[in-house]
Design a protein that fits this description.
By secondary structure, this protein is mostly helical. It is 74% helix and 0% strand. Helix 3 packs across helix 4 and helix 3 packs across helix 5.
Amino acid sequence: MKKITYLLIACAMTLFLTACGAPTIDASSEEAMKTSMEEITKDMSEAEKTEFGMAIMAVSMQVAMENMGNPEKAEGAVQDALDGKTAQEVIEMSKE
């Protein structure tokens, strides 16, 4: 019985922590991306917004350069690279 109780507690905590995660970029459409970016940046300071914006630009440039021969693929690759990422994940990606 204790094992079931511990399992239920662990599942509940996992769901709780998942729901409390940082907002992520939704790159499924241009409108969704705009809305998700506004959600991500709404509580940021100007310095944090600048850092995040620079990171978005850096990641976009990196991905675009990797797909330089195919402009259509490059745009989709940028969206794929950013989709589902938090601000911190994008900043970390830009430093790689």
